Amino acid sequence: MRKVILVAAIVALAACNKQPAAEPANDANMAMDANTADANMAGTALASINETSWEYTDNKTKKPMQESVDATGKYITVSGKEHIDHGTAVMKDGKACFTSAMTKDGETCWSDPMIAEGGSGETTSDKGEKLPIKRVAYVPLTM
Length: 143
What we know:
Structural class: alpha+beta
Strand content: 35-45%
Shape: globular
Low-confidence stretches: 4-9, 11-16, 18-42
Distance between the termini: 16 Å
Largest sheet: 8 strands, antiparallel
C-alpha cells in the first residue's frame, strides 16, 4: 500500500510539471532545443504531483500498478481493472506524500525522482524502500 501511495504522489507531482506551449520553429529555437535536450529528459523538480500518472511493479505482489493523482490531489492506484488503493497526495519539502483512505498507515513520503513524462527512475520512501517507477501521460482514473 505504501508503494501505491508513493507512486500516486509521484504521479501528482508530474502532473503539475506541465511544459509551456511550443514556440514556432526557427533556427534560434532549434539551437536552444539541441542544447537543452539532455536537461529536459532528466525532468525537473515537481512543484505539485497533481495531474500526473505513474507505472511501477509492486515489490511485494509483483503486480503491475498504475497510479494517477487528479487536479485536487486525490490519487487512485489500480492493477489492471482491480482497485488497489486511493487517498490524498501532496508535495511536502520536495517529497510526494500519500495518505491512504484504505489503511491506517498514516502519511508515507517518497523522494521526487525528477523524471520527465516518458522517463524512468527510482524513488525512495522515508523508510528507505526503493521503487523503480515510470512517469506516463496523465490518465484520470475512477473508482
